[in-house]
Amino acid sequence: MTDIAKAFTKIFWGFMLVFLNLNINQFDLFPDFIGYFIIVSGLSDLSTFSSYFKKANIYAILLGVASIPTYFIGEINILEGFIPSTSTILILASSSIMTLIHLVLIYYLLKGSIELANQHKQESLANTTKNNLKIYVIVVLSVAILTPFALNISEGAALTLITIGAIASFVVEIMILILIWQYRKIFNNIQA
């Protein structure tokens, strides 16, 4: 496997750990901070190819450090009901901030990936990445903007809004994972 493919493999598995939320007795088997630090390792390997990877690395480090407390605090479980309270508002606020930082991380990762694809004459991959980036930004910003409104509507409507946002977020995160895996496959074949 080539160095670029190895770097994208690390990034893929790092995001997979962040994406997975497997709990046993309230114990998260895959803490987000471990995933973010694996992403940091992959981005460091790519930093010579684009300054965007260096910028993404800063946000991955920030998310890795910031997600350590959430490992101990926990997250909102929308299946248990949604009751606005001070702690709910604080958790939603910190979650929204983390989501926006994650958005910036993805933005710089994909901008660097576009540069890398163009450097290696992979125009189709670069165009796919540009389109996925637009979709990702639109969906994530829409969810981030609409989520606070859940505090001011009925519980049923709030659960519906949060569920739709969660599904949309799930779909675009899968889209990004698939794209990262495509980079891994293509760059393994290019430099093999």
UniProtKB/TrEMBL annotation:
Q: Which UniProt keywords apply?
A: Membrane, Transmembrane, Transmembrane helix
Looking at the UniProt entry, the stretches that span the membrane are: 7-27, 33-53, 60-83, 89-110, 131-151, 157-181
Q: What domain of life? A: Bacteria
For this entry, the protein name equals: Uncharacterized protein
